[in-house]
Amino acid sequence: MLSPAALVDGLAAHTPQGVWVKANLLSEKGELTWQDIAWPQLRRAVDFVARQMENELGPGAVDEPVAFIGGNDIRYAVVLMAALKCGYKALLLSPRNSREGNVSLLKNTRCSKLAFTAELRSMVTELVEETPGLKVSQLPGLHDLLTAPDTTHYESLADGHMQDDETVAILHSSGTTGLPKPIYVKAGVLRVGAKLTSLPAPEGRRNIIDELYLTELMISTLPFFHIFGIMLLVRTVHYQRPLVLLPFGKPPTAELVMEAIAKTKPTGVVCPPSILEDLCKLPGGLKALSTLNTVVYGGAPLARSCGEEISKLTNLYNGIGSTEAWLIPNLVAADQADWDHHEWNPNVGIVMEPAGDDQLAELVIRRQPDNDFQTVFHNFPGLDEWRTNDLFERHPTKPALWKYVGRVDDILVLSNGEKLNPVSFEKTVEGHPWVSGVLVVGAGHFQAGLLIEAYPERAKAGAEAFIDELWPTVEEANMQSPAHARVWRSMVMLASPEKPFKRTAKGSVMRHATYRLYEEELKGLYDKQQFLTNGVQVNGELGSSQVKVAIRSAVKSVLGAQAEHLADDSNIFDFGMDSLQVLQLLQILGSSHVICTTRMVYENPSIDSLFRAVTNGQANDSAGNNVSREEKMSAMIHRYSKFVPRKYISDIPTVLSGQTVLLVGSTGALGTHLLHELLSNPEVDRVYCLNRSADAAERQTQSFSDRGLGTIDFNAHPRVRFLHGETHQENFGLEPDAYAELGRNVDMIISNAWPVNFNSSLESFEGVIAGTKRCVDFAASSPRQAHIAFVSSVASVLNFPAVRRGDDEAEEVVMVPEEFDPDNSLPAKQGYGESKHVASCILERAARQGLIGATILRVGQLAGTAEGKGLWNRHEWVPSLVKTSKSLGKIPRSLGPANDGIVWVPLDIAAKVIVDFVPLSAQGTSESGTLRCFNVVNPQVRPWNELAAVVQQHYSDSESGQQLGVVEFDEWLNELRAVGVNNGAEEAELFPALKLLDFFEGLKADGGKGRWGFATEKGVISSPTMANMGAVSGKLMQKWLDEWDF
């Protein structure tokens, strides 16, 4: 076959007016316009790169690889073809890979040469450091490449003809379960892939590949380093069907797809399901899709509701494939209602092999002699069978149809939404010589557990002795796992010798079948976990010194390696202790006869203070010195208001065209939407994201995907850089060069990293309060005079009506003004609100001294999103109230006179409002000495009883037939207290409001404050988003109810 490069040469010569792709590019005037890239233009770009690679890297030897890593644009396709011309095979590295992953690929392919683009310079610098002898060449920018002069045609070192077993390019696996592995794509795969339109189909039926290849003009959001991108390259050069490519350097979004549809008038689109789901929710999105003849998606399932809408308007096709096997041929659905099922072409050797489950089957491709349509066996000529590891479920009434349900190596999803891959954990524990088999359990539960199958002779030791022996190995696995995936000792269970694990013929454990086998035992394991909210006195058997040793040992056991530098007076929450670990700490202490409450831990967050609280029966009061909360706040404000004299971090600020923002805390729900809004703001040139987790970029990528904000690789984003550190550390925990870089560039700090725990004491927040002071020091020392926008909370002023209401104003509505007030009696009587107040006071003092400009954003109750995905956390008070009300069979008519006016703000809208309030004008941020304050609440009020009626209707119409009653708040609280008497695991699951009983009691107590609210006049003027915000509607409430799915 002719190589893609040779085909392009021919097309450039014979059809010079033919279009390869339509792209959104800079015009000669510097404006973004839709432009055609014709075949001669592509050929010149390929020749330019081939000539540069030969000059700078030398000509390629036989099958020698040259790696390429760059921005997500057409240069991947250009390099693939240029490499073929100058004798190389392109190793296309994804910028999404970790450094370790790319180093491994270079090593395993014996690659010593690499081309790259300027966007990935820092990543390439790391690769050069890790790969001795790596020779590199930087390619020109995209504009320069596409405007390259028409110099002498580069004569290919190869004749352009390729044999089936020759390598065209080297791609790689995703690395989901380990390091990515190279996959050599053979010329035979491209040859067969190109002729799949001639694959016979049953009479009257069509193949989906026909729709993908033959649609006249198709939008693609897929990168050329992905196998689907290579398929689309084949489409362009073999069938001369052009693609429409979204603007380079921007994450692909539904909005960009809509713009491309409007401007280029395509006939089809191919994209991941997340973009289609966003289009379904965007105004005009479905209308835009209705103008197309073909919509193809793949890579993951599409939400049923979205697919049903699209399938009514146009032809919706579900593609499936892999890097190893190309596109797996399936048929266009005979009935469009079956758009989410697959019907395989009968002529490619597909077998649905039972996967040890009556309902599931694995897709397997078996070699058929003389069948030239089986692409996978060109890549793997030594195999007779290719197992995809993809699991499907047969249609209940149409046996030829199959629906994708997941992978053989299942990912577990906990009830809090955290995901964990059990394979590496299981393999570590299976390495113990006493262990025959291991299963990590926990899907749908709050925490992971471990089911262990012991060798028969070892099981005789008994469960306790066995777990004692095994525990160091479990600890080893815990250390390799994220915090949410760690297993407590009490969550380890031995399998019964009478019930061996279900296994395949090859001896592999059948996960789902074994789960079902142990369903009752696993239920018992989770029921056994105590609902620890109440505590009792210290057991008198331990002496004082033993109690402290027990506390120290328990804390260090829970924190593991994080406790390496923990001192007895250190704040355990600064070392990563979370709410789940607090429960684990109480369990361990209880087993040592040291019993205390969660409140005692939160109010005494060090080994020393917890010891005093436990032994004296009181918190932070061993000396009998009752210090008022106002005095505690005053002392902490004073401690962290001793600012350093101004001394610039860097004398010369970087000259940038737009604003540069340091976003502290980007991976959470609000942080994710803030980052999305910043990247959508044309005034923002660059964003630095400072997070405490080392894998923040990967988490951010996942968070954007989960929330429907686009499929973005934040390891390679040209406008975002992720930094690993914390503000309370010196230089934010960064290397001096990185800290100095921030000083040169940053115009704005958005401080959004704050633990949300209403049980914690003020002392528990000292770390982040210290971080606020360090932000002031940074901003005051910055030559750019960085402005600080602090995401505070209405909790910092919740006591305002009680403090400010006069005796003669009992019937008046008291409004919290949009001004800062340093009165220490204003915060709610809990550590969270007090800490936000203290941090705000520190900023106010710094602004008053002329050191910084600051904006304080008092954020109210954030709800679920108004548009798109983004589940409202089920553990917050509103969803807890809803689920508890369903379980009780009654919902409160009122939340008390002070709380019946609902001013919640949807999460995505709140991010827009905050960015509206942040001074991001091209003229710079506000001057030092200024302090602004806004209340981020909904200016439109919705009575609670109207939303309660929506909840009542929702559950009264449910299949259970349950009728939800509406009762007074007092009655609802009494019912809740009554079920709390049992205080067991089942009650905790059914009545989550029990964990927040103090909070709901507080809502009732708020009634004594009278009627009050938050002023928003300044906010409405400053934020167009706030000005146009509507009250929380019944439709929105219904959306959140559907998403919770209680």
Automatic annotation (TrEMBL):
InterPro entries: ACP-like_sf, Adenylate-forming_Reductase, AMP-binding_CS, AMP-dep_synth/lig_dom, ANL_N_sf, FAR_NAD-bd, NAD(P)-bd_dom_sf, PP-bd_ACP. PROSITE patterns: AMP_BINDING (PS00455), CARRIER (PS50075), PHOSPHOPANTETHEINE (PS00012). It comes from the Eukaryota. Keywords: Phosphopantetheine, Phosphoprotein. Residues 542-618 form the Carrier domain. This is Acetyl-CoA synthetase-like protein. It comes from Parathielavia appendiculata. The lineage of its organism: Eukaryota, Fungi, Dikarya, Ascomycota, Pezizomycotina.
